[in-house]
Amino acid sequence: MEYKGYRVPQDLGLLAGLFFLLVYYSLFLQFLPVPRLIESARRNLRRESLREADSSDKEKLNKIWRGCGFLLNRLFRTSKPCLRRTLVLHRWCCKHSIASTVVVGFLKNGRELKGHSWLLVNGEPFGERPADLEKYTQVLGE
In the beta sheet, which residues pair with residue 106? Predict the structure, then answer.
């Protein structure tokens, strides 16, 4: 059976894993700086073995992207899911030896400072429109 691109029951393990990773990053974001969390995802990664993402990798990343968005918005009730989602995506890429980069940027809107994070896969923003990201000043990544 398939529902919104997820195969049931095969993808239930994926969604459960996403839930636990999101809890993990939610907890550790309170205690550790973002660069250290990014490095923890790369712990067992060998740089010489990195590869580019193919279409099946991008399909899986899309499932992870949507699953994280659903869990963060509906279960965790957060209006700012980007950093935790990006960390989960990056961790998956590192685990599968896919070259990826976490990018964090800020945008000053009057007196308000807004932050956003996204993932570059094959040098392109994954799940984001490049035109929307141009207005951010990058402080981490690349």
Answer: 115, 137
